[in-house]
TrEMBL record:
<feature type="compositionally biased region" description="Acidic residues">
    <location>
        <begin position="455"/>
        <end position="478"/>
    </location>
</feature>
<keyword id="KW-0732">Signal</keyword>
<feature type="domain" description="Secretion system C-terminal sorting">
    <location>
        <begin position="578"/>
        <end position="649"/>
    </location>
</feature>
<dbReference type="InterPro" id="IPR026444">
    <property type="entry name" value="Secre_tail"/>
</dbReference>
<feature type="region of interest" description="Disordered">
    <location>
        <begin position="527"/>
        <end position="548"/>
    </location>
</feature>
<feature type="signal peptide">
    <location>
        <begin position="1"/>
        <end position="22"/>
    </location>
</feature>
<protein>
    <submittedName>
        <fullName>Por secretion system C-terminal sorting domain-containing protein</fullName>
    </submittedName>
</protein>
<dbReference type="Pfam" id="PF18962">
    <property type="entry name" value="Por_Secre_tail"/>
</dbReference>
<feature type="region of interest" description="Disordered">
    <location>
        <begin position="455"/>
        <end position="479"/>
    </location>
</feature>
Length: 652
């Protein structure tokens, strides 16, 4: 339940006021650089030191470095973005102000990066030529390091080598750039952090801890090493090279997040009851974190994976162990990295099974009114099948939504009156123990006792308009086909089945639909809108049906719209001529019946007026110029006195 960090000790040699770190001869021992007042001073690795490596390890690409004697490995962690500039100085001796006062020693370096937080900094494939940021192999005892454009959270690996191989100290000082580096000094409650003296080959070691007022001795802690489990200030005093040294360490343990062990995540099996289902794991996040936004939750198949933070499961996860499987949730604080782990049970419950298809229910429409009383429960034995009915609840619903939500069940399913014909009924079969359910449906329908020979929605009995019992003498449109055999009773080119559309269409008694209010139902009326233009003649686009003609674009077919009355079939003028038609430009309209008040209004096929014309009384001729108009169909509304007619013109 803890997250472990590589822990850098914040230590102060009081007699120099500079920060020291231990020597790290292998990359595996890499430590962060922790600055005090932008400076860090530490012993170098040299020939004769038992704590040092003679040469840097084989594996990384060392770039410009032609030799690799006595290396030390550190890394920089960026806390503020921007460039970073440092100086590296190696000398046999520094004074109390951190300035070199001894013999200058040749120092070299290389920097790789950037690497993300959590990356393996010692992965040799990453310590490659492509990741080299800066490198110097000169004879100087002072080197300048430049790392441009760093970003928060990035890490850079710094290797420093001692070309002279002589004993001394290395000072690293931040000299410029807007970037900043941080020293990770925190761990988590329950961890153990090992701290050690800078120099491990001294003598007379004694560890102390600050009690709020002063440092007090920790009994029996007299080695260079101390294991710490509590936050606080720790100090070690020892003698090195005849000098008494005091080093201080600030250790902080962050709290382990408080998380909730989640309730079982239960899903009903809706695909064969095989115990396998798909879970959306993130639905449990809020329960586990108790709404703490600083916690990030990941899920893992094993507790080991959760503690190691590896092999996180996808959010949409299909269980691999049927019916019940325990996985593990890891909730980690994004600020401290501390975490806790809790088990989560994934449970797949069996769902009831509805035996499909459910038989439809069909009754005779005794009253010929479209409604009857149904016993919905007659199919219950089929629906439940061999399942134990004592553990199941079956309800009936008129909508799918109410069946899914288990709302508004039909109160008396043994005597239900349908509300439409046909009507779909939904059933919900629920397991009373686990709440899992299945949904099915069946159809209620009524059959009429009356025949409809032509299938136009008007029963034959209602096609006997004069009620004399003889269907053969009813022929509204005079086409010699009796109405009971005629799909278009009024001969207006709109089928009867369309003209009776409405509630009850197709079953008697149908709605009384009479657009023009002349008490003649549309299916028997050859002028449905009463505009004096027969319905059959309001087929203005001449495609054989007036259903799609809507010249004024009001979503009302023209044969039902009295405001549109453009007959194209009736000639009321003597010797009316319109030529040439089709035309490419000029059309002439003439008649000996024209008077001096004769006018022509030209419409597009959409019913838009585009031009007006008057007669040349001397020639009894009206000239229409279509040369500037688009190709297509136009209608010419010709009016002279009380006479009027509409003619169609085709422009090529």
């Amino acid at each position: 339940m803890k997250k472990h960090y590589s822990f850098l000790l914040f230590c102060i040699i009081l007699f120099t006021s500079q920060t020291f770190i231990a020597q790290n001869g292998l990359c595996a021992d890499i430590q962060p650089l922790c600055f005090t007042n932008d400076t860090i001073l530490f012993p170098n690795c040299f020939d004769g030191s038992s704590d040092c490596e003679m040469f840097a390890e084989v594996g990384p690409d060392y770039g410009c470095l032609q030799s690799l004697p006595f290396p030390t490995w550190q890394y920089l962690e960026v806390s503020e973005p921007g460039g970073l500039e440092f100086s590296i100085v190696q000398n046999t001796e520094f004074n109390s102000d951190g300035n070199p006062i001894g013999t200058a020693l040749d120092v070299d370096f290389i920097v790789w990066g950037p690497f993300p937080d959590g990356a393996d900094l010692c992965d040799y494939d990453s310590l490659s030529n492509t990741n080299i940021v800066d490198c110097s192999f000169s004879a100087a005892a002072a080197e300048d390091v430049s790392i441009p454009s760093t970003q928060v959270g990035e890490r850079y690996v710094l290797l420093i080598t001692n070309f002279t191989q002589l004993q001394g100290f290395i000072r690293v000082t931040k000299t410029g750039g807007n970037g900043e580096v941080a020293c990770p000094t925190e761990s988590c409650e329950g961890d153990e952090v090992s701290i050690q003296a800078t120099m491990t080959d001294g003598m007379d070691y004694q560890w102390e801890v600050f009690d709020g007022n002063d440092y007090v001795i920790i009994p029996d802690e007299t080695t260079p090493f101390l294991t710490v489990t509590e936050s606080g200030l720790y100090r070690i005093e020892y003698i090195f090279d005849s000098t008494t040294i005091l080093e201080e360490y600030n250790v902080n343990f962050n709290p382990i997040p408080t998380i909730v062990t989640p309730s079982d995540y239960i899903i009903c099996d809706d695909e064969g009851n095989d115990g396998i289902a798909e879970f959306t794991l993130s639905l449990k996040d809020d329960e586990i974190t108790n709404g703490d936004a600083s916690l990030i939750v990941t899920y893992h198949e094993t507790e080991t994976d959760a503690f190691a933070d590896i092999l996180a499961l996808p959010d949409l996860y299909t269980n691999t162990v049927p019916f019940i499987q325990t996985i593990y949730a890891r909730a980690e604080n994004v600020n401290t990295g501390c975490f806790d782990v809790a088990p989560l049970n994934l449970v797949v419950d069996d769902s009831p099974i509805i035996i499909d298809p459910i038989n439809d229910l069909v009754l005779d429409d005794v009253g010929n009114d479209g409604v009857e009383i149904f016993n919905l429960t007659v199919n219950e034995a089929q629906i439940i099948g061999a399942q134990d009915p004592t553990g199941l609840i079956l309800t009936y619903h008129i909508t799918l939504e109410s069946a899914l939500n288990n709302t508004n069940p039909i109160a008396n399913p043994t005597a239900y009156t349908n509300i439409q014909n046909p009507q779909l009924i939904f059933v919900r079969l629920e397991n009373v123990t686990n709440g899992c359910f299945a949904i099915g449906d069946f159809l209620l329908s009524l059959t009429s006792g009356f025949s409809d020979s032509d299938g136009d929605g008007i029963p034959d009995i209602d096609e006997d308009l004069n009620e004399n019992g003889d269907l053969e003498d009813e022929d509204t449109d005079g086409d010699t086909i009796p109405n009971y055999l005629d799909v278009d009773d009024d001969g207006d080119s709109v089928d009867t089945s369309i003209e009776i559309e409405g509630i009850g269409a197709g079953a008697a008694p149908q709605d009384f639909i009479d657009t023009d209010g002349d008490l003649i139902e549309n299916y028997l009326d050859d002028d449905d809108d009463g505009d004096t233009i027969p319905t059959i003649n309001e087929d203005y686009n001449n495609n054989g049906s007036p259903l799609d003609d809507d010249l004024n674009n009001n979503d009302l077919p023209d044969f039902l719209d009295p405001d549109v009355a453009l007959s194209i079939a009736e000639d009321v003028f003597v010797d009316l001529q319109l030529y040439p038609n089709p035309t490419q430009d000029i059309v002439h309209i003439s008649s000996s019946s024209f008077t001096q008040e004769t006018t022509v209004i030209l419409y597009t096929i959409e019913g838009r007026r585009v031009a007006n014309y008057t007669i040349d009384i001397t020639t009894q001729d009206i000239t229409i110029d279509l040369s500037e108009m688009a190709s297509g169909i136009y209608f010419a509304h010709i009016q002279s006195g009380e006479r009027q007619v509409v003619k169609r013109i085709m422009k090529k």
